[in-house]
């Protein structure tokens, strides 16, 4: 699940800021507040609360989630903490007493972006801005800017594959998420936003848990970042040169676990869909 979430983060980092338009890179977005605490109510198959702490205009976030999942007459408690900095993403499972540490995919994307020439950076920016309509049509979805006001913020609506998300305009901060996939219904709605200062304690590791590095997840994220930038730079050339998974000749893929190969293939198919493939 962790590797899947890393791939999802890369894709979300590309898709959500598309509505925003201009930024230094297509996925770099500064929030309308420097610090904030957002309360969420979660209902459906999974029910409970979530607290999202934001600092430095969104460069640092900490997400505390406490829910119960009901399925087939059974109930399972979930207690998780996710801390994200510009360099790292830390995931903690308080029920299991475990934690992991992986490189923030957006850092890797920025590293790849900064390797480009000025001309290629411009291409990446232009292609990123064009992704809005193509992304949603290619993935059987839609986007509407300023579709709804939630807690005083104008929100953009993005619908895709059974999920509708309302994010604060031109940002990736979701205030309402409704998902109905394969009969599984989950709703997350923000109930309050406090723009007061956020205490440092929310960004400290849970007591007794030391996050363990995951080199495989980091390698996978780095490959995805490189391939994503290549596709943004020149989508048509990338697709023409894509011989085998992730553009690599089949003979050079034996060292990638089969599970990772499948996930990377699906992620790259989604990225191709962003350009109306």
Features:
6 helices, 12-stranded mixed sheet, disordered C terminus, globular, outer membrane lipoprotein receptor (LolB), chain A, 36% strand, 277 residues, alpha+beta, 12 strands
Word description of this protein:
The protein has helices at 2-15, 105-114, 118-138, 215-233, 235-241, 258-274, and strands spanning 36-44, 46-55, 60-71, 74-84, 88-93, 98-103, 141-150, 153-160, 163-168, 174-181, 184-194, 212-213. It is α+β, with helices and mostly antiparallel strands. It has a single domain, classed as Clam (outer membrane lipoprotein receptor (LolB), chain A). Strand 7 (141-150) and strand 8 (153-160) form a beta hairpin. Helix 1 runs parallel beside helix 4, helix 2 (105-114) crosses helix 4 (215-233) and helix 3 packs across helix 6 (258-274). The radius of gyration is 19 Å and the shape is globular. The model is unreliable at 1-23, 133-139, 244-256 and 266-277 (pLDDT under 50).
- Rg measurement, Å: 19 Å
Report the span from N to C terminus: 27 Å
- Overall number of strands: 12
CATH-derived architecture: Clam
**CATH fold descriptor:** outer membrane lipoprotein receptor (LolB), chain A
Topology, element by element:
Elements: H1 2-15, E1 36-44, E2 46-55, E3 60-71, E4 74-84, E5 88-93, E6 98-103, H2 105-114, H3 118-138, E7 141-150, E8 153-160, E9 163-168, E10 174-181, E11 184-194, E12 212-213, H4 215-233, H5 235-241, H6 258-274
Parallel strand pairs: 6-12
Antiparallel strand pairs: 1-2, 1-11, 2-3, 3-4, 4-5, 5-6, 7-8, 8-9, 9-10, 10-11
């Amino acid at each position: 699940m962790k590797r899947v979430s890393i791939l999802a983060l890369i894709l979300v980092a590309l898709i959500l800021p598309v509505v925003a338009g201009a930024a230094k890179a297509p996925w770099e977005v500064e929030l309308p507040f420097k610090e904030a605490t957002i309360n969420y109510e979660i209902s459906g198959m999974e029910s409970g609360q979530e607290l999202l702490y934001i600092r430095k205009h969104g460069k640092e976030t900490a997400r505390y989630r406490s829910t119960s999942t009901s399925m087939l007459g059974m109930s399972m408690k979930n207690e998780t903490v996710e801390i994200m900095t510009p360099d790292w993403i830390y995931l903690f499972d308080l029920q299991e007493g475990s934690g992991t540490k992986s490189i923030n995919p957006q850092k890797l994307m920025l590293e790849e972006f900064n390797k480009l020439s000025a001309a290629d950076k411009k291409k990446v920016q232009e292609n990123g801005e064009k992704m809005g309509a193509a992304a949603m049509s290619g993935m059987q979805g839609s986007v509407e800017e300023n579709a709804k006001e939630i807690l005083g913020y104008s929100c953009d609506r993005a619908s895709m594959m059974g999920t509708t998300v309302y994010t604060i305009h031109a940002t990736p901060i979701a205030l309402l998420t409704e998902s109905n996939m394969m009969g599984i219904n989950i709703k997350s709605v923000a109930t309050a936003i406090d723009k007061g200062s956020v205490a440092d304690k929310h960004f400290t590791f849970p007591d007794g848990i030391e996050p363990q590095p995951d080199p495989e997840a980091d390698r996978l994220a780095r490959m995805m970042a490189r391939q994503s930038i290549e596709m943004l730079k020149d989508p048509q050339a990338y697709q023409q040169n894509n011989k085998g998974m992730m553009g690599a000749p089949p003979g050079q893929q034996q060292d990638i676990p089969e599970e990772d190969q499948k996930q990377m293939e699906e992620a790259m198919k989604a990225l191709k869909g962003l350009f109306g493939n």
